[in-house]
Amino acid sequence: MNFYGLLNQPSMFEQQSGLSTNRANNTRITGSKKSQQGFLGPIPNFVDNSIMTELSTNNDEVLGGQPYPLIVPTLTAEEIKILQNMAVKGNARNVPKSIRDKAAQHAIERAALNLPLFYEDEVDGRFQLDGLLSRR
Fold it and tell me: What total of structural domains would you count in the chain?
């Protein structure tokens, strides 16, 4: 089990509740199908009792305003905990700058490699994730 998998162990969290996905139709803002995996696996949000896998955002200064994920492999455990304990839906402007900066950089790097900005099971599922991609 990787580090982020350990974060999702029930004993790691004080609060336990019935968690649900945060988007009923399982699509992104772009209309594409959302992965149930994401770059870091399912992460519980303790404010709205949902499961987060990517959290879409956009910025006109990053890739012409294209949506990209906030939950990326370069986040620290502390940054993930911040996301878990805040209302994130429709609240991207209040996400800490360190998280937004890492997400933007990750999106720019993936775009430069002609990779999808979001985790795609068909592409990323074949690789070991370590910030971008490396063969398993």
Answer: 1
